[in-house]
Specification:
- The chain is an alpha/beta fold and 251 residues long.
- The chain is 44% helix and 14% strand.
- It is built from eight helices and seven strands; from the N terminus they run E-H-E-H-E-H-E-H-E-H-E-H-H-H-E.
- It has helices at 18-29, 41-51, 67-79, 102-126, 149-169, 187-193, 199-208, 218-229, and strands at residues 9-12, 33-38, 55-59, 84-87, 132-136, 175-181, 239-243.
- A seven-stranded parallel beta sheet has the order 3-2-1-4-5-6-7, sandwiched between helices.
- Strand 1 (9-12), helix 1 and strand 2 form a beta-alpha-beta unit.
- Helix 1 crosses helix 8 (218-229) and helix 4 packs parallel to helix 5 (149-169).
- 43% of the residues are buried.
Length: 251
């Protein structure tokens, strides 16, 4: 199936590894051009080099003021266009309500929530009809995940923001979508499993609760992201798409 991605230009944040990198990799594989971001100069440069000539890296933090405008400018200057953005950011620190400090909450709010809002707002001002704004969220949008209290507090609010702007931008032909990854075999998921006394037993228990009986592969998430960002999904907006092996049972 041709997704219609050839020569379309996307900004993908948090794409030096994990889900952001998987999405960028699939976009490039289907003919798109990408501007990827991360906080570390070397990791950003290495990740962009690994994606090939249709990728360029910009070292920036989502929380930085002016980051969105800088990224959109880079897309236009390097590739001559801007068709969409996928906002991905590393997960906030794990912990229960008594574990996380005010400083951790504030830093996560700036990066996970406010940074995403700024990027979406800047993208909305620049995108033409057919453009798309995507958010990498979490299954915690629907159900809290034990031990991820900060994420549980911020991701659902960002989903609400995404649905709100989908209504606002729809008349202009701009789509807004959310992706809700479940347990995908990334470094982040391995780090979370390693917090338990027996990581292997924890993973086995988690997999037993997934209908497909396994963690997802990053490339599976990446393909789902590439599809919802593509013109092939041109009538999808305001939706939250679970990519979780069937874990979510509600409609």
């Amino acid at each position: 199936m041709d997704l219609g991605l050839k020569d379309r230009v996307y900004v993908v944040t948090g794409a030096t590894r994990g889900l952001g990198n998987a999405a960028a990799r699939e976009l490039v594989a289907d003919g798109a051009k990408v501007v990827i971001t991360g906080r570390d100069d070397k990791r950003v440069a290495d990740a962009a080099a690994g994606l090939g000539p249709n990728a360029v890296g910009v070292a920036v933090d989502n929380a930085e003021a002016g980051a969105a405008e800088r990224l959109i400018a880079a897309a236009r200057e390097r590739f001559g266009g801007f068709h969409g953005v996928l906002v991905s950011v590393g997960g906030p620190p794990p912990g229960f309500v008594a574990d996380n400090t005010d400083e951790q909450w504030q830093a996560a709010f700036e990066s996970v929530f406010l940074g995403a809002v700024r990027i979406a707002r800047a993208a909305a001002a620049e995108l033409a009809e057919g453009g798309v704004i995507g958010f990498v969220l979490s299954g915690s949008v629907y159900e809290p995940i034990p031990g991820l209290t900060v994420s549980n507090g911020l991701r659902p609010g960002l989903a609400g923001f995404a649905k709100s702007i989908a209504d606002e931008l729809g008349p202009r032909g701009i789509r807004v979508v959310g992706l809700l990854p479940g347990r995908i075999a990334t470094d982040r998921m391995r780090e979370l499993d390693a917090l338990s006394a027996d990581p292997e037993a924890t993973r086995a228990a988690n997999e037993s609760r997934i209908p497909l009986r396994r963690y997802g592969r990053p490339e599976e998430f990446g393909r789902a992201a590439a599809f919802v960002l593509s013109p092939a999904a041109s009538y999808m907006t305001g939706v939250m798409v679970p990519v979780d092996g069937g874990t979510r049972h509600g409609f």
